[in-house]
Amino acid sequence: MLLTAKYVIPITSPYIEDGAVLVRDDEILDLGTASQLKDKYPMEEVRDFGLAALMPGFVDVHTHLGYTALRGMFGDLPYAEWKRQVLHTEPFFTEEDWIDSARIGALEAVASGITTIADISASGVSLVPAKEMGLRARVYYEVLTTQKEHAEDAVRDGVEKIERWKNEYGSDLLDFGLAPGPVYGCHPSVFQAIADVAIEKNISVAMHLAGSQEEEDFIRYGSSPFGVHVSEHEQLASAYPPWLPAGTSPVSYVSNWGILDVPGILAIHSVHVADRDIGILRDKDVRIGYCPRINAKLGMGSAPLEKFWAAGLTIGLGTDSPAVDTTDMIDEMRIGLMITRATSSERFVQASAKNALHMATIGSAQALGIEDKVGSLEPGKQADIIAIDLHNSHQNPTTDPESAVIYTANQDNVKMTMVAGRILYDNFVHVSGCDRDAIVDRARALRVRIREEVSDDALRKSLIEH
Q1: pLDDT tens figures, 17-39
Q2: How many C-alpha atoms does 116 have within 13 Å on its Cβ side?
């Protein structure tokens, strides 16, 4: 099939006006101007998207789809208190609740032009909707223990878990990795144990790192809300170890435990990093998961994007927890650019629409080590393609389609999403075969129930019962 549109944005080469992409089965075979490809392939079926931009699907390097049902429940809270409130809700979710919550997140991802997700959880709830809807996904099993003597067993259990996931869910679209729990909630032996097994078995690793001032203070000084705010509930407090201050930054701390030596490790957030930390990240070839909206909304800070670019780091874009904001990669790009321009002393060196699109597509693919498959429109790559409608009046006339996508579009302008040659979302309608209305109804009922059940009294009762 020939997909044609006013603009084709390959990402790794200049955009093509009145362009076309040839897709057969799950691959891209050719691209160029529509007139050239129609002459070259006269018998090919043509699908014309009109005044739209065809481009590679977005690669979301970090999300937690299982929390989608919590969106809007915790208002304008700072990070540490928001984290506490999220912990409060977890005892009230059944296994099917988690899956339904992840399903609603996956629906939104598909409708937002996201074709690849990278999700961290201890339950793998995103695997079910990813497989059901045809998303490309990497799911990281989260390893969390505060006890040194349990570290190796916990990591061994994690390896066994992802092997079971491979057997149950494995496909060309799904792969798996390991992720240590939060730096402030893990015994450091976990980092070394993960590093050892990941290097030996070539397992992908991602971790939250240097995401908040609370984490920085906890690691450096041994004192922050993470050390005290959960003490009111003994079971929740057990997630946090007695702490001796390390006297150093989170980046330096985990580097001392070997985990940054894992090839291709993804460090999510990396907000509170000094120049020395950036040097460590560069020297270790650590990839960055940039999540500007959640960092801003929860008051976590702003990652030094210009310094990352200057250091030559590989940077991918993530939407993070859908409990906080929409799963909208276009909004993520736009806000990330604006924050960088407003706060950086090097405001307009690399903070451009072109580089933002690069970060959300091929940059994110590089951050996950899958750039040979996705992230750009090139012959031989997988046909993960989206169409973004540019008909709206505020987008016309369009003289630069890359800027139009970044500055005038949003997730509601995505009109088609294709993964591996299969259309999942077409003309603003889900066509993957999932029962969208039933999923939305169950998620709505779940939100109502969780809102009614989550209170301090209900939490205490639940903890006693469990």
Answers
A1: 999 999 999 999 999 999 999 99
A2: 37
